[in-house]
Write a structure and sequence with these properties.
about 75% helix, about 80 residues, single chain, about 0% strand
């Protein structure tokens, strides 16, 4: 490990847990590359559509526990 990296690591360790978590989130977010505004907007629209469907009763939500049970069963096959 270079001296620069060791110094950065030491400084990071001196941060509060919250500050370290914020830094980690920011760095991990950069690993995926730049954000695509069109993709983000599409996900926002999808989330809003799903919320409208739930609110109107067009679709019913499935409890998370049931979703994971079904997933475990499918993975066993």
């Amino acid at each position: 490990m270079s001296n620069v990296v060791a110094e950065i690591e030491a400084r990071i360790r001196s941060l509060s847990p919250e500050e370290r978590a914020d830094l980690i989130r920011a760095l991990i977010g950069e690993l995926d590359g730049p954000r695509d505004a069109d993709v983000e907007q599409a996900w926002v629209e999808e989330a809003r559509r799903r919320q409208r469907e739930l609110a109107s009763g067009t679709v019913k939500g499935v409890p998370g526990e049931r979703v994971f049970e079904n997933l475990r069963e499918r993975l066993k096959r």
